[in-house]
Amino acid sequence: MPWKKVSPMDEKVKFIAAVCDGSVSITSLCETFGISRKTGYKWLNRYRQEGPNGLLDRSKSPHTNPNRVSFAEERFILALRKRHPTWGPKKLLVILEKDNPEITWPSASTIGNILQKRGLVKSRKKKREMIARSFPFQGYDHPNAVWCADFKGDFKLKDGIRCYPLTISDGYSRFLLCCKGLSGTKTYDTKKEFERCFREYGLPNAIRTDNGVPFAAGLGMSLLSTWWIKLGILPERIRPGKPQENGRHERMHRTLIIYD
């Protein structure tokens, strides 16, 4: 025989009925029903004020939300954003707190939600990740099998002009073919240095680089890589965040720094 299920409402009704009977004290009834005296008197007071409806379960969530943004505050936020459409939630909050310190403004995340709800936030396009197009790479079997190339950062000269050192090495012999300071990473200037190396050392089977400019482009092959392919050279691109895939060239950079 299954156990009889007892609902909280039934227990409350039985408790109130026993209290109204008056034959047993409220303290004893609370012990019998397994509730505290505070709970017992709470049920009794609700019954006296509201009748049976007072015994129904009530939501424990607060009736008011102290963190809710008022209509006036939201209008302030939207008006400021209208004057400065490029400002994000954090900057808006800084200005709001500076101009109206007497108001407790919502957090930056809440301001962001308000802007998003009003359609004032444009979703960012995901940056297209460039991946190696010739992985696994060719081996360093002989000279001119694979060349390695990179721009070794950039730095400012004494005259204020920035210098971008282009380095090219042979993967097999580790011979440094080029170390030329350029004024930028433009295709035209980079191409001129590769032309000089091709005339002096011949054409390699492949050239291994990272995915930076001018070796790669966001929508496909760069002009420089397309030129290599027309010459019969395979562009090899290492994976993003994997400099060890061009390890021999990176090791050469460290050697340059030591003997600089």
TrEMBL record:
Pfam family, any one: HTH_32
GO molecular function, one term: nucleic acid binding
Annotated GO biological process: DNA integration
SUPFAM superfamilies: Homeodomain-like, Ribonuclease H-like
InterPro entries linked to this entry: Homeodomain-like_sf (IPR009057), Integrase_cat-core (IPR001584), RNaseH-like_sf (IPR012337), RNaseH_sf (IPR036397), WH-like_DNA-bd_sf (IPR036388)
The Integrase catalytic domain, residue ranges: 139-260
Record PANTHER family: INTEGRASE CORE DOMAIN PROTEIN, LOW CALCIUM RESPONSE LOCUS PROTEIN T
Protein name, per record: Uncharacterized protein YagA
Gene source species: Leptospira weilii str. 2006001855
